[in-house]
């Protein structure tokens, strides 16, 4: 089987399963990108990911892109068709060729003022593109605010929307957390309004365990406001702010924490959840984070209602009161289900399922999707 992936850059949160696909005997995998790694990520210390036997094409010419997009019988995967020039150009070049096209996208269901215009834009995309697609791989798929609901409402047939995820490589040497006499809570991410670190500080101040500590790793426009809020809430002496650091050090901090919290108002995914789980650290995250798909309440963390400090506080209390985690076993379990090879197998399974001949409906009218629209 020949796979061709189209991205704007070599995504480190996609590389592990793409590399694993290329390692399967009989597979040829091409990865086409506009650039290897944007300056934004280079400045933050991210490396160009290991691509193994993948055939990488950086900034292909129009002729080269057209040749790759029309390889007979190939599976073409376009990461986004809105705002991504190379995937869109390749998609258009592939039309009419004997290939299998899939859209891959993060969940775009963000409640609030942005929802209606976003729904209109993606509905227009569905009207133009869905008849040319064999399926949609949705990163952040499930739940009330999941991508399955959003994209089916836009007009993509719900039966052809497959759950998917971002993927990270496991830490080279998982480490055991430090023995201490106080709970250690961790946040990792940008300090921007969408991440709702203010909500975490509020819940932490009401947590009811005066020995608990909170570490916040990241940078952003909200840092000074958050420091002031910690002072106002009377917890500044128990909150430690750390600037961004190399990924290996961040993962080590995750392994050392009792629990990671991701309180975002909206996140298409949130790869810090993968990183924490794979080193055996449970996660509490909001129900508007795509990575909440990975959380099973009480086993590897909790999911709480976004925007509710009380709900987050209750999850923190339940976690430290009731959850006793074998960190080594959790790291092994999560690494096995979230590593590149496991996700590559899941991806292949869904490609095979979505390319299987469709059953002919025995009814006078075609079935409708969740959005009440006929499938392509």
Fold and architecture overview:
The protein is α/β, with parallel strands linked by helices. It has 2 domains: 2-168 and 340-355, 3-Layer(aba) Sandwich (Rossmann fold); 184-334, Glycogen Phosphorylase B (Rossmann fold, 3-Layer(aba) Sandwich). Helix content is 35%, strand content 18%. It is built from 13 helices and 13 strands. The chain has helices at 15-22, 39-43, 62-69, 85-94, 115-129, 147-154, 197-205, 223-232, 247-256, 272-278, 309-322, 327-338, 340-355, and strands spanning 2-9, 28-35, 55-58, 75-79, 100-106, 135-139, 161-164, 184-188, 213-217, 239-242, 259-262, 283-286, 301-304. The strands form 2 sheets. It has a 7-stranded parallel sheet with strand order 3-2-1-4-5-6-7, with helices on both faces. It has a 6-stranded parallel sheet with strand order 10-9-8-11-12-13, with helices on both faces. The longest helix has 16 residues, at 340-355. The chain is globular. It starts with a strand and ends in a 21-residue tail after the last helix. Residues 359-376 have low confidence and may be disordered.
């Amino acid at each position: 089987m020949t796979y061709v992936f189209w991205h704007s850059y070599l995504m480190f949160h996609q590389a592990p399963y793409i590399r694993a696909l290329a390692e399967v005997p009989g597979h040829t995998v091409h990865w086409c990108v506009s650039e290897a790694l944007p300056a934004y990520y280079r400045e933050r210390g991210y490396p160009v990911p290991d691509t193994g036997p993948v055939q990488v094409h950086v900034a292909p010419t129009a002729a080269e892109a057209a040749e790759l997009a029309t390889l007979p019988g190939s599976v073409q995967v376009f990461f986004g068709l809105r705002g991504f020039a190379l995937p869109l150009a390749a998609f258009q070049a592939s039309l009419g060729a004997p290939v299998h096209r899939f859209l891959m996208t993060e969940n775009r269901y963000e409640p609030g003022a942005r929802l209606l215009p976003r729904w209109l834009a993606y509905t227009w995309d569905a009207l133009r593109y869905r008849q040319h697609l064999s399926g949609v791989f949705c990163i952040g798929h499930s739940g009330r605010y999941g991508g399955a609901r959003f994209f089916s409402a836009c007009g993509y047939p719900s039966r052809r929307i497959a759950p998917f995820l971002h993927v990270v490589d496991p830490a080279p040497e998982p480490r055991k957390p430090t023995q201490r006499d106080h709970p250690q809570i961790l946040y990792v991410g940008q300090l921007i309004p969408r991440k709702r670190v203010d909500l975490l500080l509020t819940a932490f101040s009401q947590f009811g365990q005066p020995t608990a500590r909170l570490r916040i790793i990241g940078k952003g426009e909200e840092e000074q406001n958050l420091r002031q809020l910690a002072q106002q809430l009377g917890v500044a002496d128990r909150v430690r702010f750390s600037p961004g650091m190399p990924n290996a050090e961040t993962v080590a901090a995750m392994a050392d924490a009792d629990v990671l919290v991701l309180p975002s108002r909206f996140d298409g995914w949130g790869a810090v959840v993968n990183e924490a789980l794979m080193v055996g650290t449970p996660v509490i995250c909001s129900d508007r984070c795509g990575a909440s798909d990975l959380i099973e309440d009480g086993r590897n963390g909790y999911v709480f209602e976004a925007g509710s400090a009380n709900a987050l506080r209750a999850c923190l209390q339940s976690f430290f009161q009731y959850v006793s985690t074998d960190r080594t076993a959790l790291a092994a379990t999560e690494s096995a289900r979230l590593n590149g090879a496991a996700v590559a197998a899941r991806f292949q399974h869904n490609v095979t399922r979505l390319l299987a001949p469709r059953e002919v409906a025995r009814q006078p009218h075609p079935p409708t999707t969740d959005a009440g629209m006929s499938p392509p």
